[in-house]
Amino acid sequence: MGGRVVSTTRRKARTGITVLEVTISIAILSMFLLGSAAAYVGVLRGAKDARRTSRAGVYLASVMEDLAAEPYDNLAGLNGSTFHDQPTVQGSAFVVELSVFPAAVNLLQLRAIVKDPNSNRELARVVTLRCNP
Fold first, then answer.
1. What is the H or E stretch that residue 66 is in?
2. Looking at the domain assignment, is residue 8 inside a domain?
3. What's the total number of domains in the chain?
4. Global pTM?
5. Which of 9, 37, 72, 73 is the most exposed place for a label (fewest CB within 10 A)?
């Protein structure tokens, strides 16, 4: 009779991981870490921009307080003026451009725009009215 011969020896089960599995897992892990690093850099850049915009707003508020102390008759002469936050233009982090023009009889409109002098990007803007007392 033709019978099958059954082998009683089994192959040993392979334990451990292969080089291919290690390579794939390292590739996946490195992609995750690169994505996380890029997100972290983006968050740091956003925080820096927010801090800079906040400082620009504080500087603009101080300029507007100084303008509030100016007499009404002197305001028209300030049209086209620029104010810097440092004594020299080169060292300034912010530049405020001021526009003053009549809005109505005995009413002046003041528009102050604070910009980054390096990129000329607008950081904040204030428009207000002053009347002749």
1. helix 19-69
2. no
3. 1
4. 0.72
5. 9
